[in-house]
Amino acid sequence: MKKKQKRSIYYVLAVVLLALAGYHGYQKNGFYKSAYNEDLPGQEQTSDKQSEGKEYQSTGDLSLLDVKLPKDLENQTVHYKHIIVYFNKDYRVPNCVAYELTSTMTSMADSREAENRADYKFERDYDVKGCPDWWDYKDSGYTRGHMAPAMDMRWDKTAMAQCFLMTNICPQVEEMNDGEWRHVEEAVHRWSRTAKRLIIFTGPIFSDNMEYIGKHDDIAVPESFFKVIYAPELNRAIAFVMENKGMPNSWTNYATTIDKVEELTGYDFLSKLEDKVENVVESKENIKNWPAYYPRR
């Protein structure tokens, strides 16, 4: 073969290899550039990122994840693949984060093949107005508290990456975040195994005298947090409200009703249920009706 022909073949191969490398780089890094479809109008957006991990399709009604917020509350609803974030650009934290957790997801999250939290980093979502960067919390005295916890998302790569976006984060006192609040998260994780499917809402409770952190002192530090849990197959619900500080009592002492959380926040959860069912479910909180779980001290 002539030298000129050889050079032509090498040139073509080089072009093909460069094109493939560029495509792979786009696939790998594209998620953090745009977490969801930029062409959708208005304040509601949807993630178009395909799962890079295990696929799982819900068989339940995901409209139960809808939350009705007060009209005067600043909000941008962002539909990521596995969580819905109701984000407040004024406070620079989520109003609420909603997701479902099934026994299948939990089994996958607890398996040896599950994602490792250490492989993921906090990232800013540049497409969401007001979303802070990870370093805005640095030296603030507060931890970056996940609203949708990583332990529930380990079953899927995309779920893990999305739960580490700063749109899912609030400033939390370490003693609370790694104390009784974590015990609630662990209990909910275990409950999903027996309840088969849970609908979960988590978020801050805002007040008039909140502290602010960040370079420009514009990230609100909530004085307390809520978690609402509904088990559709059991038609049973429970909620928790916990102050943003080290809590002196066991997590079970902070159980309450959904009605109480709605009173504190002005939100309307589970509005897709029939009124008769919703009224009964949201008025009860008996923790004895939930499988016992006592974390190690």
Your description of this structure?
- The protein folds into two domains: 1-33; 38-289, Extracellular Endonuclease, subunit A (Extracellular Endonuclease, Chain A, 3-Layer(aba) Sandwich).
- The protein has 297 residues and is of the alpha+beta class.
- The model is unreliable at 18-43 and 46-55 (pLDDT under 50).
- It starts with a helix and ends in a 15-residue tail after the last helix.
- It contains seven helices and twelve strands.
- The strands form three sheets. Strands 1-2-3-4-7-10-11-12 form an eight-stranded mixed beta sheet. It has a two-stranded antiparallel ribbon with strand order 5-6. The chain has a two-stranded antiparallel sheet with strand order 8-9.
Please state the overall shape, judged from the principal axes of the Cα atoms: globular
Low-pLDDT runs of 5+ residues are 18-43, 46-55
Taken as a percent bin, the fraction of beta residues is 15-25%
Q: What's the overall average pLDDT, rounded?
A: 84
Count every helix, treating DSSP H or I runs of 4 or more residues as helices. 7
Distance from N terminus to C terminus (CA atoms, Å) equals 75 Å
Order of helices and strands: HEEEEHEHEHHEEEEEEHH
CATH H level, superfamily name of the largest domain: Extracellular Endonuclease, subunit A
